[in-house]
User: Which sequence fits this backbone?
């Protein structure tokens, strides 16, 4: 190679035309092959070059952008600030790599905004300053990040919910233990008071004025004993004492019990009577307690009055569970595999769907200061002790329906209570 | 002829007082104590016909007293008293030879009925 040829190759300005064309094609090919939008601007902020990715990301064609201010690609409310940033950048030129944590927003031709990540590189050619911006549309990444955050949030909520449940369960256990222990401890002295009072009554003549006083002592002590027993049942569900009952009769008795309250609350109780239903093995007191609890809730759900409908259906349930029971030879058995479903429907406010899954949890209540949130949880325990279940459906503003599923025959042998006496 | 003798072992003085009064009025000779060892010494000296014993006792629990009473005098009838009823303790009471298992608080009519069932009239 001659000296003059070497000079020609070293000095860009004096390159042969072919070499220039080759360089230009190479530059263009590289620009188009880049997975980023490339925007080159001069120091005044005019767009001098864009590649195909820029057209794709921002929805403009080249002719619409070339010569325009780069702020065309910036949302209107940020343009003024962007011009300031740009001027500042031009006077303190540095290379700013991608991913340094700047949350930037681009504006597409249709006005929509997109999250972008931008790297800036200053270039000096023949004493002129140009800035090359590599722009990446990070919409998908942001969406994934948001999905990840959402899933993390849900997971955290779930974990917190479970922790809350655990705490509630522990509280329930300690509540049960405390009431049981309290009730037993009170029962003993109360038994002694009742015993002495009973004994005194045999010694005092009924015409003696003191007889009435002793009688009152005995009655009031018995009342205390009953309260303690209720508390005991409340904290620790007693084993059901099964007896065969006509379910309709049980429903009528529970309705009768609350008739004055229904009347006062302007609520019309409707029993959809059905004949030919089987008698069921239940603890009538416990299932009555469930019904009364549901009726009380219904009264509270209908502050302006309404209708309470109680109906009965029978349904065959020849399930795998039954077959397993008979194979295992367990104490539980169903005479004919049928179940009876008691439906209690009110025309009240309904339950917030977000609350529906929690209403059977212990200590869950929406009645601030009115209850302990144990009612439905006790209903659930009673139903389970009967080999049945309870569920609910609600339409906010229209009412709630509770379903009590009771096997026709699910007597259990009494549970063993291990007591270290 | 001596009256049927009843022994009551419980850690509640007032309960002992109640049984002593009620059963005494029925004509039985009743002795009561909160001390299980004392009770066993009395029983050894002269066996009782019927013994009421609370399961939850210290330092000797009711079941140990039941065992030792039956060892000393197999014919003695023992009624177990329980504050914390359970099927296991009930079963154990009968397995060890108790004739009754009563749950506190005990109705005095039930108490009198139980005594009448197991003892000859005084």
Assistant:
């Amino acid at each position: 190679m001659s000296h003059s040829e070497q000079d020609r190759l070293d000095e860009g300005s004096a390159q042969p035309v072919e070499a220039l064309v080759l360089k230009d094609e190479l530059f263009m090919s590289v620009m188009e092959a880049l997975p980023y939008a490339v925007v080159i601007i001069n120091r005044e902020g005019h767009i001098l070059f864009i590649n195909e990715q820029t057209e794709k990301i921002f929805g403009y064609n080249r002719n619409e952008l070339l010569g325009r201010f780069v702020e065309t690609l910036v949302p209107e409310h940020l343009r003024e600030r962007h011009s300031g940033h740009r001027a500042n950048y031009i006077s303190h030129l540095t290379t700013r790599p991608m991913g340094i944590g700047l949350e930037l927003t681009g504006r597409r031709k249709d006005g929509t905004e997109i999250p972008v990540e931008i790297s800036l590189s200053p270039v000096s050619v023949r004493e002129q300053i140009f800035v090359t911006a590599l722009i990446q549309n990070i919409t998908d990444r942001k969406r994934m990040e948001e999905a990840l955050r959402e899933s993390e949030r849900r997971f955290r909520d779930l974990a917190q919910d479970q922790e809350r449940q655990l705490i509630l369960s522990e509280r329930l256990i300690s509540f049960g233990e405390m009431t049981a222990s309290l009730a037993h401890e009170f029962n003993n002295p109360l038994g002694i008071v009742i015993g002495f009072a009973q004994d005194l009554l045999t010694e005092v003549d009924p015409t003696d004025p003191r007889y009435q006083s002793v009688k009152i002592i005995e009655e009031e002590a018995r009342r205390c004993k009953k309260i303690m027993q209720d508390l005991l049942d409340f904290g620790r569900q007693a084993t059901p004492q099964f007896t065969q009952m006509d379910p309709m009769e049980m429903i009528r008795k529970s309705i009768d019990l609350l008739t004055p309250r229904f009347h006062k609350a302007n609520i019309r109780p409707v029993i959809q009577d059905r004949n030919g239903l089987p008698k069921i093995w239940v603890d009538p007191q416990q299932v009555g307690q469930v019904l009364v609890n549901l009726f009380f809730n219904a009264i509270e759900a209908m502050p302006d009055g309404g209708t309470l409908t109680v109906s009965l259906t029978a349904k065959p349930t020849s399930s795998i569970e039954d077959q397993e029971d008979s194979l295992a030879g367990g104490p539980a058995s169903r005479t004919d595999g049928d179940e009876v479903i008691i439906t209690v429907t009110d025309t009240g406010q309904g339950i917030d769907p977000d609350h529906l899954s929690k209403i059977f949890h212990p200590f869950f209540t929406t009645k601030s200061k009115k209850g302990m949130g144990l009612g439905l949880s006790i209903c659930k325990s009673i139903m389970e002790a009967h080999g049945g279940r309870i569920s609910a459906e609600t339409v906010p503003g229209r009412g709630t329906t509770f379903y009590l599923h009771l096997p026709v025959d699910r007597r259990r042998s009494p549970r063993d209570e291990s007591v270290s006496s | 002829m001596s009256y049927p003798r009843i022994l009551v072992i419980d850690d509640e003085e007032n309960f002992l007082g109640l049984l002593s009064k009620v059963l005494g009025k029925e004509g039985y000779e009743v002795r009561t104590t909160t001390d299980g060892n004392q009770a066993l010494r009395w029983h050894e000296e002269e066996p009782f016909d019927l013994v009421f014993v609370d399961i939850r006792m210290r330092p000797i629990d009711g079941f140990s007293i039941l065992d030792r009473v039956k060892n000393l005098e197999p014919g003695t009838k023992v009624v177990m008293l329980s504050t914390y009823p359970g099927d296991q303790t009930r079963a154990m009471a009968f397995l060890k030879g108790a004739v009754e298992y009563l749950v506190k608080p005990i109705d005095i009519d039930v108490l009198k009925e139980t005594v009448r069932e197991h003892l000859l009239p005084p």
Remarks:
- Strands of chain B lie at 5-9, 29-33, 50-54, 77-82, 100-103.
